Amino acid sequence: MSRTPTHPGWGTGDSAADRYREVVPVVEARTAAQLADFVTTL
Question: What are phi and psi of 34, to 5 degrees?
């Protein structure tokens, strides 16, 4: 899981990732396990 946004589409077009990043951590989770790990850290 990457804690630094690296997805090329984040923050472009209609993506709101840049706005979300101002108030919450933005991560890329590719599996349910990675997502669960992140959610438990909130």
Answer: -65, -40
Closest CA to 29 of 18, 41, 19: 41
Q: What is the CA radius of gyration of the chain?
A: 11
What are φ and ψ of residue 25, in 5° steps? -65, 140
Q: What is the model's pLDDT at position 32?
A: 95
Beta bridge mates, 2: 28
Domain of 17 in residue numbering reads as: 1-42
**Count of structural domains within the chain:** 1
* Residues forming beta bridges with residue 9, ordered by sequence position: none
Quote the pTM value: 0.49
